[in-house]
Amino acid sequence: MLELSILGFLYEKPLHGYELKERIQGLSGHVRTVSDGALYPAITRLVKNGLVDSRTEPGASAAPRRTLSLTPEGRRELLARLRTPKDAEITDGQRFFTVLTFLGRLPDPADQAAVLRRRQEFLSAPASFFYEGGRPVRAEEEPDLFRRGMLRIARATGTEEKAWLVEALAELDACRPEPPDAR
After folding, report:
1. Which of 28, 50, 83, 155 is most enclosed, with most CB atoms within 10 A?
2. What pLDDT is recorded for position 154?
3. Among candidate residues 169, 74, 111, the one with its CA nearest the CA of residue 99
């Protein structure tokens, strides 16, 4: 997800390493902090693979700074990753939020809708944090106050997400060109 975030933010505009880290940190928040030990090796890999360009510019009042920008190959890579996210990027909520952050970069509403439909399909399967006899435990069945809270919060969040997905898909489907009349 770190590489997707780097590519996505650089798609918007060139950034210095510190600015990029701040944007990624804002996206992932306190859930998954971004260390320099993870960020800079990821940037180095992307530069080595020709997806990101790094150039040194004089600093305003300090040492020279590295400016990072997306190469044409990096743009293609970002769009490819957004068109076909990995299963974990669909099933994990935080990873899916990262995909959503940049999904608007895909130019084709049909490609955007296909990603949302995958998430919708995942959310339609019965699930829980806890299982009894292979069956998901519902909040009403959970005797533990705190686990019951987890289940209720997850259900409320899931209900809202499902409603949003229906709305978003309707909006994206309305953007599709009408098929030519077959007469």
Report:
1. 28
2. 93
3. 111
